[in-house]
Amino acid sequence: MLRQALERRIGSLSNIEFVTIMAMTTEDIKFNRIRFKKCTSLNYILDIAERSALVLKRCA
Length: 60
Hints:
78% helix; mainly alpha; 0% strand; 60 residues; 3 helices
């Protein structure tokens, strides 16, 4: 479900790209959301994942 929603926003992803993007997203949420006791909606998760994908593609 999450992968399909993300692919609708940014296009198709390989398995490695998806795993890397999700790892980046998880770390961002742990550091910036959970630490400050904020809830994270699905739309916000997709926004973070989309930004992570852009960073990944720029650095690759």
